[in-house]
Amino acid sequence: xxxxxxxxxxxxxxxxxxxxxxxxxxxxxxxxxxxxxxxxxxxxxxxxxxxxxxxxxxxxxxxxxxxxxxxxxxxxxxxxxxxxxxxxxxxxxxxxxxxxxxxxxxxxxxxxxxxxxxxxxxxxxxxxxxxxxxxxxxxxxxxxxxxxxxxxxxxxxxxxxxxx
Length: 164
Fold this sequence. Notes:
By secondary structure, this protein is an all-alpha fold. The protein is 80% helix and 0% strand. The longest helix has 31 residues, at 132-162. The relative contact order is 0.18.
């Protein structure tokens, strides 16, 4: 039988980043797929839109390859965001003590950086929505389904390090 506490106690920064990044990537994309699907946007088009940040308009003629690139970009961004939070939590342990506030705040910060720095500097081939209900939904998703999972996984890993 595998001792889950012993296994979890061995989680280092890399494992924490991997789990937190995967959790955030999956939990954040699911509501996007649902909302965009309700608006008539296929998963293929959603992921091509992500890859358009690198490829521009060419992403939409790239078929499944550009959609897979979009999925990879989404995962990469999630892993980088998780890495930043994990290393920040080692400098400022209060991030794992006040993990709910820290996660919600981090989700808001990531939302702001993505929408006001990354997207304007990218080659995206679409104009981001300014419709208040969609902006509010996207903001809430970043708080609850992106920042919070990253802080929660980081807290769990930190607690296991302390008690191992």
